[in-house]
What we know:
Blueprint: H1 18-57, E1 66-72, H2 88-98, E2 102-107, E3 110-111, H3 125-137, E4 142-148, H4 157-165, E5 168-172, H5 174-178, E6 186-189, E7 193-197, E8 201-202, H6 204-207, E9 211-217, H7 220-236, E10 260-264, E11 267-276, E12 286-287, H8 288-298, E13 302-307, E14 310-311, H9 318-330, E15 334-341, H10 348-357, E16 360-361, E17 366-374, E18 393-397, E19 400-404, E20 408-409, H11 410-414, E21 418-424, H12 435-447, E22 452-454, H13 461-465
Parallel strand pairs: 2-4, 3-8, 4-5, 11-12, 13-15, 14-20, 15-17
Antiparallel strand pairs: 1-9, 2-6, 6-7, 7-9, 10-11, 11-21, 13-18, 16-17, 17-22, 18-19, 19-21
Helix pairs in contact: 2-3, 3-4, 8-9
Amino acid sequence: MADVDLRNRENLLKPQTCSRCILIITCLTAVLLMIFSIQTLIIPSLISSDVKINATFAHTCTGKCRLVLVESIPVGMQFNSSVGHPSIYQVWQVLLSEAQSSVDIASFYWTLTNEDTHTHEPTASWGEKILQDLVELSGKISVRIAVNTPQNKQQQRDLQMLISAGADVRDVNMQDLTSGVLHTKFWVVDKKHIYIGSANMDWRSLTQVKELGAVVYDCECLADDLQKIFEAYWFLGNSKTIPAPWPSQYATDFNKDTPMQLPINGTDSRVYLSSAPPSLCAEGRTPDLQAILSIINDAQQFVYIAVMNYLPTIEYWADIDTELRRVAFEKNIHVCLLISCWDSTSAIMFSFLRSLASVQDSKSGLDIQVKIFIVPSSPSQKQIPFARVNHNKYMVTDRVAYIGTSNWSGDYFLNTAGSALVVNQTSASSSESTVKDQLQAVFERDWNSSYSTPIKHNSNLEDICRV
């Protein structure tokens, strides 16, 4: 075509050039068909790829998720405060009464009756009622329970009752899989409601142990993501090894870097679920320790922590202890730790707590404070084993609420199965109080209560814990 003078249009119409014209048109037609064919093959692929990428980074969940903080306040404890929330017993009853198709529970152990204590404690009736409700549901709807393989002489009567009624139960042998235990505690109901928190499937968790958790209603997006963690436990109940990597159906798009965007209590929220240990985290899942570190680092004013145990006795675990000191020093963050004391408290913990509490210097702005929390006991209550303790496992900063299931010691993040809910509502435009505000109020109520005692360098805390 280079030798054709396009300006001489008449020449193109001459008879002697017709054959050349036909050849040119044929070639152009072939080229156009080829281009069309390539577009037909490539463009859908590109569109599909773009849609997939956008779904990963801009996934917005619809619905009107409603989150309620829930607590168990031990019998006999009274706070001089208006701060309070529905009881865990109440919300468990609601979840079971409204369940239509399925109840999936991940749990450490089951003692909803007090046969194991032989105390004839009347407050065990609440746990017995929950067990009876579950028995009645089993066989009518799908009830699945993933539980840590019972150790030694742990009672199994509750689980045997549920199996007989039609529930499916799988033991997860975490001891063989990771040398740890399945310590997590959550429910998924009808694939749209969830409970997650510190309470075990134990009657004492309803009446004799101080617990905190969250129930989220009508939140299919969040329930679907927690369901993936449950399904991983369910799979491990029939496996002798942990997949590496996990199959794609266990993967998630939601984590600390790309949280799900959804409304909670009418407020725009960024939410994700973390899990431990790392070997149980499928692609996309934030390990629990990394979630905690990122939340501490993200704080701009304060970090409040309420946990039963604080034992930085493993090198990997020292990360949190170091991070708390770093943000206090480099960012002037106000750090408060509220740690539990009871008969089973390890004496070695006090050395670490005293070390943290010593990072206190008003001149330089260093501000780390530590208090111990003691649940009082009557003579009869003292006879109840493994009771009368603040079992909370949460953290709240000026930006984020974290509600977990793990004690804060190294082995819980290395080899013990746990999970946590992380909620950020810093973009809130609603007049409603945020989850962070509510959790902060719980912490401050406990911190300022008569049940809390500041740690001092020479305090004989071992005796204080055993009052």
